[in-house]
Amino acid sequence: MKILFKYYGPAVLWALFILIICNMPMGAISESPRFFPGFDKLVHCGLFFVFVVLYYNGYIRQNGIKRVPYTALVWLTLLATAYGGLIELLQLYVFTWRDGEWNDLFADAVGVGMGTFSMLLIGNAIDHEEI
Q1: Which position among 13, 83, 108, 110 has the lowest Cβ density within 10 Å, counted as fewest Cβ atoms?
Q2: Residue 28 lies in a domain
Q3: Are 6 and 62 a contacting pair, CB within 8 Å?
Q4: Residue 91 contacts by C-beta under 8 Å, 6 or more apart in sequence?
Q5: Half-sphere exposure (CA, 13 Å, Cβ side) for 110?
Q6: Which residues cross the membrane (predicted)?
Q7: CA pair distance 79, 121, nearest whole angstrom
Q8: Is 88 part of any domain?
Q9: Is residue 1, in this structure, part of any structural domain at all?
Q10: What is the rounded CA–CA span in Å between residue 105 and residue 112?
Q11: Alpha-carbon span 121 to 47, nearest angstrom
Q12: Closest among 60, 73, 53 to 11, alpha carbons compared
């Protein structure tokens, strides 16, 4: 089991960090003058972008490849978006001090899409690299 998930440690830790930070009571932080409207959505997008990139990094290192296959891209995109949906359901039904919002899930999905797109660009750049 340790060998199977050897390079996924950063992605798993980041997923736990997302779970913790998205379910902490934040109080009136959204009303603070230090944050602009929509700051929460930007944070959701960034958290899931980093999560997807860390996962792809682990996948690439684990399999010893240069680019992620399209099937793996599709599966991780679906799983990461489902993870965002799970967090929103937890916020709605379990951690009642937080609000589960469709807009947050959309921001999560945008972050997942940005991470997937960046990995596609990197894979394409590696394929067309001139030595």
Answers
A1: 13
A2: yes
A3: yes
A4: 22, 23, 98, 99, 100, 101, 104
A5: 12
A6: 7-29, 41-60, 72-93, 105-126
A7: 21
A8: yes
A9: no
A10: 10
A11: 20
A12: 53
Containing structural domain, residue 31: 9-127
The pLDDT value given to residue 32: 66
According to the model, what pLDDT value does residue 6 have?
A: 82
> How many other C-beta atoms can be found within 10 angstroms of the C-beta atom of residue 77?
17
Residues 20-50 as b or e (16 or more Cβ within 10 Å = b): eebeeeeeeeeeeeeeeeeebbebbbebbbb
49 near 113, Cβ under 8 Å?
A: no
pLDDT value at position 2? 56
Task: Work out how many domains the chain is built from and give that number.
Answer: 1
Structure tokens at 48: 């899931």
Whether 3 maps to a domain, the answer reads no
Q: Provide the residue-wise pLDDT of the chain in tens; the chain has 131 residues.
A: 556 678 899 999 999 999 998 888 766 656 666 777 777 889 899 999 999 999 999 999 998 888 888 899 999 999 999 999 999 898 888 877 677 788 889 999 999 999 999 999 988 888 777 66
